[in-house]
Design goal:
Blueprint (H helix, E strand, L loop, with lengths): L7 E8 L8 E8 L1 H10 L10 H14 L2 H7 L26 E2 L3 E2 L5 E4 L10 H18 L21 E4 L4 E5 L5 E6 L2 E2 L2 H9 L12 E4 L5 H16 L8 H17 L2 H8 L1 H4 L6 H10 L3 E5 L4 H12 L20 E4 L15 E3 L35 E5 L2 H8 L7 E5 L2 H12 L2 E5 L3 H10 L1 H30 L6 H31 L10 E2 L2 E2 L1 H9 L2 E3 L13 E2 L7 H7 L2
Parallel strand pairs: 5-11, 5-15, 11-12, 12-14, 15-16, 16-19
Antiparallel strand pairs: 1-2, 3-19, 4-20, 6-7, 6-10, 7-8, 8-9, 13-14, 17-18
Length: about 600
């Protein structure tokens, strides 16, 4: 909190008095810029600070004074869309559903000694309208210029809203699938053409042995990085079908070429050089990252960063996210952000990093020169935006930056005694969450940016969901009546008026068709409110989607943004909601 000019403001001071109720408030008027700065500095918490009894009481009084609604309105109006860090004055309030952290397995943060983060799409949330478009355009150019695809591709455009996570690409058939948790295909497209029910059943539901829908025949779209390549694959399928002979490769080969083009973009630095030139164009700013990291460290926990990006790019992105405190330091050479981490591991090659038997060497990185200090000849790694600069030898050497290695190295660097003492936050269900959970037993939190809008929309559709359930019950009721009448006609035909039964049966069958059509249309409209093509991210019909099933299995916690951690106590005990079996739901659900 900074106040440019001294002025008076009012704050409400909580008083404990024999003559007042325990939480009565009195208005205290304070005049002084210096006092405001002093209060501000007190709340920039330091690690493991012990207060004397008197100073602790004074601090508690100050917290009570600063924590009331009156002081917040007078000093810093609060916007519900911009919640405050839990440890700040005015923090610890109720949290909107879009910012909440949801719990699959109990997690007591008091047992966590180290909190780790992925960078890309976790700390750094890329803007899909610019970054994914950049990735798409770079991939198309590689397909045309390097792999010999038709020049017509260069005129194509990218709809970054079309694809979602959790889809499965059928490389052999050119299909894009959305499945439920039991791996039944519920939505399917061939390119951009929706497949009819009969076509889906004939392709995926009429086999003696069920398909596993895994690599190498299928590709799993489990990360936001994959959305552009999935969209491009669908475009190529349509183009091949509409222009026989233009593309000689089959669907599988086309997908392989798309992957090769994506790899070329990453290998030659096409994408990262563009991001490095103008990070603000491609990455969302999040002012809660630094306060979150400070709060975790002030609570006595270690923090670490494990990313597949190399040091040069990592430094640029983290400078943008954490801000630069020195305007005179050349771009890419400010290392203030290192103080928020105990260990930084770049070029980690996840998910193989999570296997302790992985023999990858661990190299220390000199942040100023990019040199790998532990290589045989000290081969330097220049920054992506500049030529090699000589080290300035001004860094705090207690901040360690590495490249490569494996999880065993990380455990030793942080003195981790048990893998359950680590919480790792990432966005990739396979690369970050599944392996760290399944192989190591780390506690995990998955970042799902799409979740914020989904849960907010869900909260407004309560009545719609009740109506859908009512329509489903009506269908069940009519179908039961029809089955009963048919049974009577078959086994008790001599004792019933056949013409009357047939008339009633015809009427019920007409009613059944109306209910079926109305229910399916209502359900389709409901899902399209979430996404025009694929519907609700976490649902497929009435079942959990394949993606939701993976989240439930491997993520202890999940939330829409990494900085939602800052809205909760660093010592919070996260508890899951009660699970219901189908036989319990109608009886026990509230």
């Amino acid at each position: 909190m900074r106040i440019a000019n001294p002025f008076s403001f009012c704050a409400s001071l909580y008083c404990f008095s024999p003559f007042l109720s325990p939480f009565s408030s009195r208005i205290l008027c304070i005049r002084s810029q210096g006092f405001c700065s002093l209060i501000s500095n007190k709340f920039l918490c330091r690690r493991k600070v012990n207060f004397a009894p008197d100073s602790r009481n004074n601090l508690l009084a100050t917290i009570r004074m600063m924590g009331t609604a009156q002081s917040e309105k007078s000093i810093c109006p609060e916007d519900d869309k911009h919640p405050r860090v839990w440890s700040s004055p005015g923090g610890g309030r109720s949290i909107g559903i879009g910012k909440q952290i949801f719990c699959n397995r109990s997690l007591n943060m008091r047992n966590i000694v180290a909190v780790g983060f992925d960078m890309d799409y976790t700390l750094a949330q890329y803007k899909p309208e610019t970054f994914e478009t950049l990735a798409y355009e770079g991939t198309v150019k590689k397909l045309v210029n390097d792999l010999g695809y038709p020049t017509e591709l260069l005129k194509w455009t990218f709809d970054w809203t079309y694809m979602v996570r959790g889809l499965v690409l059928d490389k052999k058939r050119g299909n894009i699938l959305k499945m439920d948790r039991h791996k039944y295909v519920k939505v399917a497209y061939h390119g951009f053409r929706e497949m009819k029910k009969e076509e889906k059943v004939a392709t995926y539901g009429s086999t003696l042995i069920r398909d596993a829908f895994d690599e190498p025949e299928y590709a799993l779209i489990d990360t936001l990085f994959s959305l552009a390549e999935a969209y491009l694959f669908a475009q190529l399928v349509d183009f091949k079908d509409s222009n026989p002979g233009k593309i000689s490769a089959d669907y599988s080969r086309m997908y392989k070429d798309v992957r090769a083009a994506v790899d070329l973009c990453h290998r030659d630095g096409t994408l990262k050089k563009m991001v490095a030139k103008d990070p603000g164009r491609y990455i969302n700013e999040d002012t809660l990252i630094v306060p979150m990291l400070k709060m975790l460290r002030d609570s006595g926990r270690s923090t670490f960063l494990v990313t597949n990006s190399l040091w040069d790019y990592t430094n640029i992105v983290m400078n943008f996210l954490c801000g630069s405190s020195s305007e005179n330091v050349p771009a890419g050479l400010n290392f203030d952000w290192l103080k928020y981490f105990d260990v930084i591991i770049t070029g980690s090659a996840k998910p193989s990093f999570f296997h302790d038997e992985n023999r990858a060497n661990l190299f220390e990185v000199d942040p100023e020169s990019g040199m790998l200090l532990n290589t045989d000849n000290g081969t330097p790694m220049p920054q992506v935006d500049a030529s090699l600069r000589l080290p300035m030898k001004t860094l705090d050497k207690s901040r360690l930056v590495f490249q490569g290695g494996n999880v065993g190295h990380l455990h030793k660097l942080l003195s981790i005694e048990s893998s359950s003492q680590v919480l790792y936050v990432g966005d990739h269900i396979y690369g970050d969450i599944l392996r760290s959970k399944k192989v190591l037993g780390w506690r995990t939190m998955l970042v799902v940016p799409e979740l914020e809008k989904e849960v907010e929309l869900l909260s407004t559709l309560r009545d719609t969901r009740k109506e859908l359930q009512l329509q489903r019950n009506n269908r069940d009721h009519v179908e039961d009546k029809i089955d009963h009448l048919k049974w009577n006609l078959r086994f008790d035909g001599g004792n019933v008026a056949k013409e009357d039964v047939l008339a009633e049966l015809e009427q019920l069958q007409s009613q059944q068709e109306q209910y079926r059509s109305s229910h399916q249309q209502s359900q389709r409209e409901h899902h399209h409110k979430f996404h025009k093509v694929w519907g609700q991210l976490m649902k497929t019909g009435y079942q959990k989607s394949r993606f939701a099933h993976q989240v439930e299995r491997f993520a202890c916690l999940y939330t829409s943004q990494v900085t939602n951690l800052s809205l909760y106590s660093p010592d919070k005990y996260y508890r899951p909601s009660e699970d219901f079996m189908p036989h319990e739901f109608d009886i026990l659900s509230l």
